[in-house]
Write a structure and sequence with these properties.
- With 60 residues, this protein is of the alpha+beta class.
- The chain contains 1 helix and 4 strands, in the order H-E-E-E-E.
- It has a two-stranded antiparallel sheet with strand order 1-2. The protein has a two-stranded antiparallel sheet with strand order 3-4.
- The longest helix has 8 residues, at 11-18.
- The radius of gyration is 23 Å and the shape is rod-shaped.
Length: 60
């Protein structure tokens, strides 16, 4: 058996429900070592550090 709605939902009520599906901007923080913007809880792409430790060697 499928779900059967009791009453019809109007377009405005349906669209109000869908209004919160928008995308949000990425949250960026400054790297404590080099100051470059990076995503939190990720290795910095500029200097290769995570949690003040060098994880990846970055060649210049």
């Amino acid at each position: 058996m499928s779900i059967c709605p009791k009453n019809k939902s109007s377009r405005s009520h349906r669209d109000k429900r869908r209004a919160n599906w928008k995308m949000s901007a990425m949250n960026l923080v400054k790297c404590p070592k080099c100051g470059e913007l990076m995503m939190p809880h990720h290795v910095c792409r500029n200097c290769g550090t995570y949690n003040k430790k060098e994880i990846v060697k970055v060649g210049d």
